[in-house]
């Protein structure tokens, strides 16, 4: 049976005109009867046959009906009707009394649909008791319930009018940190990991203070009872290893999810404490560097990909390179950052710049063709903006790495094919004139390794003639 069946077909001809919910064909009487039955499910009369069983599972008919309400709640008129008849309070009773994971999931899902409408979202968000109960759902052991809870939180955090209410509530609820870290570090449910990642990404983007608190967090904290009888304390979580574990889970199955987790890492590097959390990990940041290195060198923007792939991958590449750049600038003494191990990364950076040059030419041609299309031009400008960000980050990292190359590194790069006249020309074309000092320093070392190549590059870039 589907988790969320479609609403029943309309039987409006059998309903009285005044029974319709707003402008829909849904029956007020039917909806009210379902809410009433929902109350009866969680509060069965003592001694009623089957009462104990109903506390752990739903009868098929009731599940189908409440799922129809779930679908119907995407309609604003229905959502307002449910709000008017205190459905959130009924759901509070479900969360407090029900032992049925499926029922809890559906009720959170209905609230998530209702929260898509601003007025209802404000009402739900300002209810302190409901807010705390919903945050407690993050400690649930049921993945579908966790998914719907995360979706609801993301919906509320995306509403500017109430986002701060939730940020403050989460800041004052230590259990949220532990529960989110537990999900990221242990779940294999990709859909759940992506949604939780989106919540964390939104939280860090909204509130730097909360991000700093989570970076510094790591002490064992009581998270209170969960739905099952699991222990009340979770392990000593650190945010960076949890993010890395989630990223590894989603990297193959969900490119959008990988983008989310790479952006979370990038947000961490916007504060010194975040950079230190990465590079001062027990392994000195090696796991982070290895994962990002592997993504750039072996998965993204590969030699057999068309140049246009850089358009599709520009945001995730920008996040990854930004983190690598921050790590390289702060950890040049770490063994994993030594240049003899990172010549393939230099080759990948130059390939990204080559692909962007190809995309730039296509963009100019497309711009000429669609000059009259204002919407097309607006989209084009946005794409160019994101590519420029990627180029700036790529050039900064490349310039820093070129300055660290020794003669032996360059000889290795030449032998491996990462460095040649074409790739060096592409690098110089993009780095000059902003990174003149870096290019000049690289050229002097290159002259020791391959004078002919250095002379040819000087001819192509006269401003680089060595002052001797």
Reconstruct the topology from this structure.
Blueprint lengths: L27 H15 L8 H4 L5 H13 L3 H9 L2 H11 L3 H14 L3 H9 L1 H9 L6 H15 L5 H9 L2 H13 L3 H17 L1 H9 L22 H12 L4 H14 L3 H8 L6 H13 L10 H22 L12 H27 L4 H30 L3 H10 L4 H11 L4 H14 L1 H10 L8
Helix pairs in contact: 1-3, 1-5, 3-6, 5-6, 6-9, 9-12, 11-14, 12-13, 12-14, 12-15, 14-15, 15-18, 17-18, 18-20, 19-20, 19-22, 20-23, 21-23, 23-24
Provide tags for this entry:
about 475 residues; elongated
Number of helical segments with 4 or more residues: 24
**How many β-strand runs?**
0
**C-alpha termini separation:** 80 Å
* Quaternary: single chain
* Uncertain spans: 1-15, 219-232, 363-372
3D architecture notes:
The structure is a single chain. By secondary structure, this protein is an all-alpha fold. The protein has helices at 28-42, 51-54, 60-72, 76-84, 87-97, 101-114, 118-126, 128-136, 143-157, 163-171, 174-186, 190-206, 208-216, 239-250, 255-268, 272-279, 286-298, 309-330, 343-369, 374-403, 407-416, 421-431, 436-449, 451-460. Helix 12 (190-206) packs across helix 14 (239-250) and helix 18 packs parallel to helix 20 (374-403). The model is unreliable at 1-15, 219-232 and 363-372 (pLDDT under 50).
Please outline what is shown here.
The chain is mainly α. It is 68% helix and 0% strand.
